[in-house]
Amino acid sequence: MFGDRLRYIRKHQEFSQAEAAEALGLSPVSYNRYECGQREPDFDTLRKIAQFFHVSLDYLLGNDEDAAEDIVDFSHFILHGNYTIDAHFPEEHERKMIHDLIRAVYDNQRK
């Protein structure tokens, strides 16, 4: 289950195995073994994986059965996801402005 969820979130967030491994400070072989279920990460690595992909440890471990697999961290999606606005792919600085605007509205509503 862990390997399947890890593969799902990596593909959903459009990272290659090599990119994910590098970002996590792992060798590509070690990362691949996690996805294939040949090996399980230690707690510190598991925590890094959850933080990198913006998911809970419960989700990664399969303890959160009510979690829908299509739930995406909106903040991460705005900054890194694949979308267009009026057929235009936003550039990095535009994504950051959109993110900051949404964050400001959200934070204001929580006050």
Descriptive notes:
By secondary structure, the protein is mostly helical. The chain has 2 domains: 2-61, 434 Repressor (Amino-terminal Domain); 74-110, no CATH class. It is built from 7 helices and no strands. It has helices at residues 2-12, 17-24, 28-36, 43-53, 57-61, 74-80, 92-110. The termini are far apart. The mean pLDDT is 87.
- Kindly report the CATH topology of the largest domain: 434 Repressor (Amino-terminal Domain)
Fraction of residues in helix = 55-70%
Q: Specify the CATH class of the largest domain.
A: Mainly Alpha
Low-confidence runs: none
**pLDDT average, as an integer?**
87
- Report the total helices: 7
Q: Major beta sheet, specifics?
A: none
What percentage of the residues does DSSP assign to strands (E)?
Answer: under 5%
Query: Which CATH architecture of the largest domain would you pick?
Result: Orthogonal Bundle
Judging from the principal axes of the Cα atoms, what is the shape?
globular
Structural domains: how many: 2
Keywords:
111 residues, mainly alpha, 434 Repressor (Amino-terminal Domain), globular, 0% strand
Offer a concise description of the structure:
The chain is mostly helical and 111 residues long. Helices cover 63% and strands 0% of the residues. It has helices spanning 2-12, 17-24, 28-36, 43-53, 57-61, 74-80, 92-110.
Q: Which helices and strands, and how do they pair?
A:
Blueprint: H1 2-12, H2 17-24, H3 28-36, H4 43-53, H5 57-61, H6 74-80, H7 92-110
Helix pairs in contact: 1-3, 2-3, 6-7
